[in-house]
Amino acid sequence: MIKQSFSLGVCLGLSMTVIIQVFDVTGTFKDFYIRHISPQSWNNTPYIACRQVTSNTENPSKETEETLKGSWLPGFDVGSSHKDDDVIAISLFKTVRVACWILTSPSNLEKKAIHVKNTWAKRCNVVVFISSQRNDSFPTVGVNASEGREHLTAKTMQAFKYLYDHNLNDADWFLKADDDTYVIMENLRYFLSAEDPQKPVYFGQRFKPHVKQGYASGGAGYVISKEALRRYGQRGSQNVSMCKNDLGDEDVEFGRCLQNLGVILKTGLDAQNRTRFHCWAPEFAVRPEFTKALLEYDFENGTGFPQGIENISDYAISFHYVSPTKMYDMEFFIYHLRRYGVLNMPQKLNVVT
């Protein structure tokens, strides 16, 4: 009885200490909530996280700015009513820096690119829209290439040269995506957190024909390391025998270019052999259908890219053929829809090498 009373007294004392401290900081209880998060930093040490939520974010105090942390980084919603713990995502935002470049065209700026800009691109550390014409109001970077599918190779080669010249030290990884590709940046950063940007590597949905080591689908998006970009900028961008400057399929030609530079195409599958990069729309990916046309492209297991929910990683990274309206659907289902009473814990899905 004495031990029980003593334990109860200690718990009440600690609880009162927390309550008094919270009240002392703000003078009110309504702007605080306490969450129990486990694990912290991928280990099994539980901890209590206490952060302030305020509806007035125009002139935040230093205390509010400190407690909000990630809400003040690009792409994180300050006014959100969600009480998710984003400490890990914020840490990866700072330590796994990704520069995104989006392949678009003058006619697609207001049809497609604007919706990428308004959704997932906000979560890139650096974002550059590449077109054949410069547009200072959007803005876009104009490269010396004609429009048309047959000239996507020229756009791609010049885009990576632009990143090498202007953004090499601003990021660790460099992502190429189309203006109808949707990318879950938090999942991409988690995936890349297990990789070394100082090694000549790149990742995406691997296709096996045309290039000896395979190549990454352009529609699914692919990401290259800083060392891969350095090799391209220093050796490949001015050497047409290594890196074709136009014509051909963009993803095939850039894949062949990287192979010539000694850059290794690695798997994008998770630890359970489920797909993370997808060259098709999400509604197609979740259907358990078999597509014979994909057999010759399937680098991973020769079964034509198995589809269905059970074959898609819980930390899927990208989908292609996402229409402008579906961009916002994806935003809702990923960043707003919640199941009440369910706390999602981080999973370890990266492949251990």
TrEMBL record:
Q: Which GO terms describe its cellular component?
A: membrane
* Segments forming domain Fringe-like glycosyltransferase: 115-265
| Pfam families per the UniProt record, alphabetical | Fringe
The EC number(s) given in the record are 2.4.1.122
Cofactors (names): Mn(2+)
This entry's Gene Ontology molecular function terms read: glycoprotein-N-acetylgalactosamine 3-beta-galactosyltransferase activity; manganese ion binding; nucleotide binding
* Alphabetical list of InterPro entries matching this protein: C1GALT1/C1GALT1_chp1, Fringe-like_glycosylTrfase
Pathway given for this chain reads: Protein modification; protein glycosylation
- Domain of life here? Eukaryota
Q: Where in the cell is it found?
A: Membrane
Report how it sits in the membrane. Single-pass type II membrane protein
Instruction: Report keywords, A-Z.
Output: Disulfide bond, Glycoprotein, Glycosyltransferase, Manganese, Membrane, Metal-binding, Nucleotide-binding, Signal-anchor, Transferase, Transmembrane, Transmembrane helix
The principal localisation class reads membrane
Membrane-traversing stretches: 6-25
Describe its function: Glycosyltransferase that generates the core 1 O-glycan Gal-beta1-3GalNAc-alpha1-Ser/Thr (T antigen), which is a precursor for many extended O-glycans in glycoproteins.
Quote the PANTHER family the UniProt record gives: BETA1,3-GALACTOSYLTRANSFERASE, GLYCOPROTEIN-N-ACETYLGALACTOSAMINE 3-BETA-GALACTOSYLTRANSFERASE 1-RELATED
Family stated for the protein in its record: Belongs to the glycosyltransferase 31 family. Beta3-Gal-T subfamily.
Assembly information from the UniProt record: Homodimer; disulfide-linked.
Q: What is this protein called?
A: Glycoprotein-N-acetylgalactosamine 3-beta-galactosyltransferase 1
Upper taxonomic classification of the species? Eukaryota, Metazoa, Spiralia, Lophotrochozoa, Mollusca
